Amino acid sequence: QLQLVESGGGLVQPGGSLRLSCVGSGFPLGWYSIGWFRQAPGKEREEVSCISVRGGSTRYADSVKGRFTISRDNAKNTVYLQMNSLKPEDTAVYYCAAPGQTSAPCGVGMAYWGKGTQVTVSS
Hints:
By secondary structure, the chain is mainly β. 0% of the residues lie in helices and 49% in strands. A hairpin with a 6-residue loop joins strand 5 (46-51) and strand 6. The protein has no helices and eleven strands. The strands form two sheets. Strands 2, 4, 5, 6, 9, 10 and 11 form a seven-stranded mixed β-sheet that branches. The protein has strands spanning 3-7, 10-12, 18-25, 34-39, 46-51, 58-60, 68-73, 78-83, 92-99, 110-113, 117-121.
């Protein structure tokens, strides 16, 4: 079974940057499209970004376009989320996820989830 572990969260001031990592084990992460999601207190979970199996296709929520960049290094079984110009409204627990079927398109049938990493943007 694919297992996902997020890291890189923390406390950062508005305007700062963080890079989140999602490391996979159990199966090659390169078999899966990977999505980053976030959930803030009292809000529904939302997709932040997603990257295709080979990384040739990416998409972003409107709220993070131009500030966040998703990338992957399949040799390292890792997907990254570079977050720049962070705002207080980016505060949330960030999760990475993969579909239940290999090579499924971004965001379709997400079945494997990490436990999340907390990102707090505050002065």
